[in-house]
Automatic annotation (TrEMBL):
InterPro entries: GlcNAc_PI_deacetylase-related, LmbE-like_dom_sf. This is LmbE-like protein. GO terms for molecular function: hydrolase activity, acting on carbon-nitrogen (but not peptide) bonds, in linear amides. It comes from Nostocoides australiense Ben110. It holds the Pfam family PIG-L. Keywords: Zinc. PANTHER family: 1D-MYO-INOSITOL 2-ACETAMIDO-2-DEOXY-ALPHA-D-GLUCOPYRANOSIDE DEACETYLASE, N-ACETYLGLUCOSAMINYL-PHOSPHATIDYLINOSITOL DE-N-ACETYLASE-RELATED. It comes from the Bacteria. One of its GO terms (biological process) is glycoside metabolic process.
Amino acid sequence: MSLLEGLRGQNVVVAHAHPDDETLATGALLAEIASAPGEVHVVTATRGERGELMPGLPGRAADLVPGSWSYVAYREGELAAALSALGIRHHAFLGQPPARAEGLPSRSYADSGMRWVSPGVAGPAADVGADAFTAAGVGEAAGDLAAYLRAADADLVISYDAGGGYHHPDHVRMHEVAKTAARECGLTFLEVIPPGRDDIPGDLDTIEWTDLSRHLPTVQAALRAHASQVQVEGGDVVHVGGQREPIVTRVGLRRA
Protein backbone atom coordinates (compact mmCIF):
# COMPACT_ATOMS: atom_id res chain seq x y z
CA MET A 1 0.00 0.00 0.00
CA SER A 2 1.32 3.43 -0.91
CA LEU A 3 1.59 6.25 1.61
CA LEU A 4 -1.26 8.10 -0.09
CA GLU A 5 -3.52 5.05 -0.08
CA GLY A 6 -2.73 4.64 3.62
CA LEU A 7 -4.35 8.02 4.34
CA ARG A 8 -7.82 6.71 3.50
CA GLY A 9 -10.00 6.50 6.58
CA GLN A 10 -7.44 8.32 8.73
CA ASN A 11 -7.63 11.55 10.72
CA VAL A 12 -4.93 13.59 9.02
CA VAL A 13 -3.53 16.92 10.25
CA VAL A 14 -1.62 19.02 7.71
CA ALA A 15 0.51 21.79 9.27
CA HIS A 16 1.47 24.93 7.36
CA ALA A 17 3.16 28.24 8.06
CA HIS A 18 1.02 30.90 6.30
CA PRO A 19 -2.32 31.33 4.54
CA ASP A 20 -1.96 30.19 0.88
CA ASP A 21 0.75 27.59 1.71
CA GLU A 22 -1.94 24.97 2.18
CA THR A 23 -3.06 25.46 -1.43
CA LEU A 24 0.27 26.21 -3.10
CA ALA A 25 2.10 23.24 -1.58
CA THR A 26 -0.65 20.73 -0.83
CA GLY A 27 -3.85 21.84 -2.55
CA ALA A 28 -4.14 18.71 -4.70
CA LEU A 29 -3.21 16.49 -1.76
CA LEU A 30 -5.83 18.12 0.48
CA ALA A 31 -8.49 17.77 -2.21
CA GLU A 32 -7.59 14.09 -2.60
CA ILE A 33 -7.74 13.35 1.13
CA ALA A 34 -10.95 15.36 1.55
CA SER A 35 -12.64 13.27 -1.14
CA ALA A 36 -11.86 10.01 0.69
CA PRO A 37 -13.20 8.55 3.95
CA GLY A 38 -11.65 10.03 7.07
CA GLU A 39 -11.05 13.60 8.23
CA VAL A 40 -8.47 16.15 7.18
CA HIS A 41 -7.51 19.12 9.35
CA VAL A 42 -5.30 22.11 8.51
CA VAL A 43 -3.34 24.02 11.14
CA THR A 44 -1.80 27.37 10.13
CA ALA A 45 0.95 28.94 12.22
CA THR A 46 0.68 32.60 11.21
CA ARG A 47 -1.65 34.99 9.39
CA GLY A 48 0.98 35.91 6.80
CA GLU A 49 1.16 39.43 8.23
CA ARG A 50 4.32 40.31 6.32
CA GLY A 51 3.16 39.19 2.92
CA GLU A 52 3.13 41.70 0.09
CA LEU A 53 0.02 42.74 -1.83
CA MET A 54 -0.77 41.82 -5.42
CA PRO A 55 -1.13 45.01 -7.48
CA GLY A 56 -4.42 45.76 -9.20
CA LEU A 57 -6.74 44.36 -6.52
CA PRO A 58 -10.31 45.68 -6.76
CA GLY A 59 -12.29 47.66 -4.20
CA ARG A 60 -11.22 47.89 -0.59
CA ALA A 61 -8.56 45.23 -1.09
CA ALA A 62 -6.47 47.77 -2.99
CA ASP A 63 -6.19 49.90 0.18
CA LEU A 64 -4.95 47.12 2.46
CA VAL A 65 -1.69 47.71 4.31
CA PRO A 66 0.44 44.63 5.07
CA GLY A 67 0.69 44.10 8.81
CA SER A 68 -2.51 46.01 9.59
CA TRP A 69 -5.51 44.50 11.34
CA SER A 70 -7.60 44.79 8.18
CA TYR A 71 -4.91 43.02 6.15
CA VAL A 72 -4.75 40.15 8.65
CA ALA A 73 -8.55 39.85 8.65
CA TYR A 74 -8.58 39.85 4.85
CA ARG A 75 -6.02 37.04 4.66
CA GLU A 76 -7.97 35.04 7.23
CA GLY A 77 -11.02 35.38 4.98
CA GLU A 78 -9.04 34.28 1.95
CA LEU A 79 -7.82 31.23 3.83
CA ALA A 80 -11.35 30.28 4.87
CA ALA A 81 -12.54 30.55 1.25
CA ALA A 82 -9.61 28.48 -0.05
CA LEU A 83 -10.19 25.73 2.52
CA SER A 84 -13.87 25.63 1.58
CA ALA A 85 -12.94 25.23 -2.09
CA LEU A 86 -10.66 22.33 -1.18
CA GLY A 87 -13.37 20.64 0.88
CA ILE A 88 -11.63 21.17 4.24
CA ARG A 89 -13.99 21.57 7.22
CA HIS A 90 -11.50 21.65 10.10
CA HIS A 91 -8.99 24.46 10.64
CA ALA A 92 -7.15 26.12 13.53
CA PHE A 93 -4.50 28.78 13.98
CA LEU A 94 -1.56 27.67 16.09
CA GLY A 95 -1.62 29.26 19.53
CA GLN A 96 -5.42 29.46 19.64
CA PRO A 97 -7.50 26.72 21.32
CA PRO A 98 -7.72 23.88 20.55
CA ALA A 99 -4.25 24.38 19.05
CA ARG A 100 -2.83 25.75 22.32
CA ALA A 101 -1.17 23.77 25.10
CA GLU A 102 -3.38 23.34 28.16
CA GLY A 103 -2.95 25.98 30.83
CA LEU A 104 -1.39 28.61 28.57
CA PRO A 105 -3.14 31.81 27.46
CA SER A 106 -3.90 32.17 23.76
CA ARG A 107 -1.23 33.73 21.60
CA SER A 108 -0.56 34.51 17.95
CA TYR A 109 2.57 33.50 16.10
CA ALA A 110 3.55 36.25 13.67
CA ASP A 111 4.95 35.89 10.18
CA SER A 112 8.76 35.94 10.40
CA GLY A 113 9.22 37.51 6.99
CA MET A 114 11.76 36.51 4.37
CA ARG A 115 13.95 37.74 1.55
CA TRP A 116 14.86 36.10 -1.73
CA VAL A 117 18.48 34.97 -1.73
CA SER A 118 18.29 33.37 -5.20
CA PRO A 119 15.49 32.56 -7.66
CA GLY A 120 12.98 30.36 -5.85
CA VAL A 121 15.01 30.17 -2.62
CA ALA A 122 14.07 32.23 0.45
CA GLY A 123 16.15 33.31 3.41
CA PRO A 124 15.36 34.93 6.77
CA ALA A 125 14.33 38.56 6.99
CA ALA A 126 16.75 40.98 8.61
CA ASP A 127 14.19 42.27 11.12
CA VAL A 128 12.48 39.26 12.69
CA GLY A 129 10.10 40.39 15.44
CA ALA A 130 9.98 39.04 18.98
CA ASP A 131 6.52 37.57 18.36
CA ALA A 132 7.59 35.80 15.16
CA PHE A 133 7.05 32.09 14.67
CA THR A 134 10.81 31.54 14.36
CA ALA A 135 11.46 33.54 17.55
CA ALA A 136 9.28 31.19 19.60
CA GLY A 137 10.81 28.05 20.98
CA VAL A 138 10.17 24.84 19.07
CA GLY A 139 8.94 23.31 22.33
CA GLU A 140 6.15 25.83 22.85
CA ALA A 141 4.86 25.65 19.27
CA ALA A 142 5.17 21.86 19.21
CA GLY A 143 3.19 21.69 22.46
CA ASP A 144 0.44 23.73 20.80
CA LEU A 145 0.35 21.48 17.75
CA ALA A 146 0.41 18.37 19.96
CA ALA A 147 -2.65 19.72 21.80
CA TYR A 148 -4.47 19.97 18.48
CA LEU A 149 -3.37 16.49 17.42
CA ARG A 150 -4.90 15.08 20.58
CA ALA A 151 -8.10 17.13 20.22
CA ALA A 152 -8.48 15.96 16.62
CA ASP A 153 -7.69 12.35 17.53
CA ALA A 154 -5.12 12.50 14.72
CA ASP A 155 -3.60 9.40 13.19
CA LEU A 156 -0.73 11.15 11.40
CA VAL A 157 0.81 14.53 10.61
CA ILE A 158 1.91 16.00 7.27
CA SER A 159 4.13 19.06 6.80
CA TYR A 160 7.18 20.33 4.91
CA ASP A 161 10.48 18.54 4.50
CA ALA A 162 13.56 19.76 6.36
CA GLY A 163 14.21 22.35 3.65
CA GLY A 164 10.78 23.88 4.10
CA GLY A 165 9.97 23.53 0.41
CA TYR A 166 11.89 26.63 -0.63
CA HIS A 167 13.77 27.39 2.60
CA HIS A 168 11.37 29.98 4.00
CA PRO A 169 12.35 30.18 7.69
CA ASP A 170 8.75 29.72 8.86
CA HIS A 171 8.43 26.60 6.73
CA VAL A 172 11.64 25.16 8.13
CA ARG A 173 10.39 25.91 11.64
CA MET A 174 7.05 24.24 10.94
CA HIS A 175 8.89 21.11 9.83
CA GLU A 176 10.70 21.09 13.17
CA VAL A 177 7.49 21.77 15.10
CA ALA A 178 5.43 19.14 13.28
CA LYS A 179 8.11 16.49 13.59
CA THR A 180 8.48 17.19 17.31
CA ALA A 181 4.72 17.19 17.93
CA ALA A 182 4.28 13.94 15.99
CA ARG A 183 7.01 12.32 18.06
CA GLU A 184 5.44 13.59 21.30
CA CYS A 185 2.10 12.04 20.32
CA GLY A 186 3.57 8.84 18.90
CA LEU A 187 2.25 9.57 15.39
CA THR A 188 3.62 9.02 11.90
CA PHE A 189 5.08 12.15 10.28
CA LEU A 190 5.01 12.46 6.49
CA GLU A 191 6.97 15.09 4.59
CA VAL A 192 5.58 16.82 1.49
CA ILE A 193 8.29 17.01 -1.15
CA PRO A 194 8.15 19.85 -3.70
CA PRO A 195 8.45 18.66 -7.31
CA GLY A 196 11.09 20.02 -9.64
CA ARG A 197 13.69 20.96 -7.04
CA ASP A 198 17.30 19.80 -7.19
CA ASP A 199 18.12 20.50 -3.53
CA ILE A 200 15.75 18.11 -1.74
CA PRO A 201 17.43 16.85 1.44
CA GLY A 202 17.45 13.18 2.39
CA ASP A 203 17.06 9.95 0.44
CA LEU A 204 15.27 10.66 -2.84
CA ASP A 205 14.51 6.96 -3.40
CA THR A 206 12.08 6.96 -0.46
CA ILE A 207 9.79 9.59 -2.03
CA GLU A 208 6.47 8.32 -3.40
CA TRP A 209 5.20 10.48 -6.28
CA THR A 210 1.54 10.60 -7.30
CA ASP A 211 -0.14 12.47 -10.17
CA LEU A 212 -3.18 14.30 -8.80
CA SER A 213 -3.79 16.51 -11.84
CA ARG A 214 -7.49 15.56 -11.77
CA HIS A 215 -7.77 18.03 -8.89
CA LEU A 216 -6.34 20.96 -10.89
CA PRO A 217 -9.70 22.79 -11.24
CA THR A 218 -10.24 22.55 -7.48
CA VAL A 219 -6.74 23.85 -6.75
CA GLN A 220 -7.20 26.69 -9.24
CA ALA A 221 -10.41 27.73 -7.45
CA ALA A 222 -8.67 27.64 -4.07
CA LEU A 223 -5.74 29.68 -5.38
CA ARG A 224 -8.12 32.31 -6.75
CA ALA A 225 -9.36 32.75 -3.18
CA HIS A 226 -5.85 33.97 -2.28
CA ALA A 227 -6.04 36.89 -4.71
CA SER A 228 -4.01 39.20 -2.45
CA GLN A 229 -1.00 36.92 -2.94
CA VAL A 230 -1.28 35.07 -6.25
CA GLN A 231 -2.88 35.08 -9.67
CA VAL A 232 -3.90 32.00 -11.64
CA GLU A 233 -2.98 31.92 -15.30
CA GLY A 234 -4.02 28.59 -16.78
CA GLY A 235 -1.88 25.87 -15.26
CA ASP A 236 0.50 28.40 -13.68
CA VAL A 237 0.41 30.45 -10.52
CA VAL A 238 2.04 33.91 -10.47
CA HIS A 239 3.21 35.13 -7.07
CA VAL A 240 3.02 38.65 -5.75
CA GLY A 241 6.73 39.11 -6.49
CA GLY A 242 6.26 38.07 -10.11
CA GLN A 243 7.62 34.54 -9.78
CA ARG A 244 5.78 32.10 -12.04
CA GLU A 245 5.57 28.35 -11.47
CA PRO A 246 3.32 25.45 -12.45
CA ILE A 247 0.46 24.73 -10.06
CA VAL A 248 1.52 21.74 -7.98
CA THR A 249 -0.50 18.63 -8.79
CA ARG A 250 2.33 16.07 -8.64
CA VAL A 251 2.62 15.19 -4.98
CA GLY A 252 5.65 13.65 -3.28
CA LEU A 253 5.32 12.06 0.16
CA ARG A 254 8.05 10.56 2.32
CA ARG A 255 7.99 9.04 5.77
CA ALA A 256 10.23 11.19 7.95
